[in-house]
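G., the chain you wanted modeled:
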Amino acid sequence: MKKICVLGLGYIGLPTAAALATKGFEVVGVDTSSEVIDKINHCRLTLNEPELDVFVKAAIKSGKLRTSEKIEPADAFLICVPTPFKGNYEPDLSHVEDATKEILSVVQKGNLVVLESTVPPYTCEKVLGKILSQSGFKIGEDIYVAHCPERVLPGNILKELIENDRIVGGINEMSTLKAIELYKNYVNGDIISTSAHIAEMSKLVENSYRDLNIAFANTLQLICHKMGIDVWELIRYANLHPRVNIAQPGPGVGGHCIAIDPWFIAHHFPQESVLIRESRHLNDRMPNFVADRVEEAAKKLPYPVIGLLGMAYKENVDDLRESPAIAVFEELKKRKVGTLMICEPHADVVHGVKTQPLQEVLKSADLLVVLVAHKEFCQLNWHYIRREKEILDFKNITT
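Predicted structure as tokens:
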């Protein structure tokens, strides 16, 4: 196996392409966006990921990584395209289907096709297998198909891409073995073999579990607010039990994984996944709870200027996808609650609104609302700030 084609050069595809190139493979990174291709070629990456620009630049300079808008014949194809959902929470597999059809145009006997995108159950079998079978080759004998879900954390992608364990599941045993042979070249973590069905479900289950745990913590947050007690203190004491590990509450759940993946299970198994679905709904309602709290506090101020601290979906990254903090901002704007200022140290503009420097927000706002635990916010002297400002802290960093 000498030449690898990576389809989709986003958060997963680009680092994966660079990692394979550093191991000596000839790698072609394919993306439908000419703008993305141009920025990668000139090392002007839009992904704020530590050391990724240096890593990609080295791979391109070595001659082992190049980019293209058109697919080329290769020994193996890695599909790393987006898998969002539609308005009714139905999984949108159009990008996966389009990428597979592109592969169909160049696929040859002996090729390996690995899907890394997070997908609903049966996608390898009923989408990839069905499309690739049109080549006339036998799937699992002439063309090998497997799933290896990505399991990395934005802000630490390069390290986790190489060090994390990987689950590899083929549509048959030979497909699994072929995929493992590829991943052994750059993954230092354990590579666990299974079926495609279990590999597909594993990523969904991991993130559904986390979503359920956060939903329980947010349920406690709602109850504690009514009781007038500190939810953080309650959870801290409950977690002293050796078999209890409650997650931390917050303004909701964001990112491309936890906020989306549970719906892939709920859509396919609606009767069996009531708990998963209700947890998703509860976490999606949390921005409204936060907005209620902010509106209630703002009514006590004559001309409230409200500083919203953090717009990313989690701390210390620039990723705004599915961010509950943005949902809070939009809800407050819709309700016309005070004068809103937003501070996001990792972005200049959020939803068309210019973000403000932290010191300007601290100076001008009457009410500060902590939505993301960025290190810039954690390092502030909140004891001093509390003397002059009203504070609503949904990340427990100001105590």
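The CA atoms of residues 382 and 399 lie 7 Å apart.

Shout if anything looks off.
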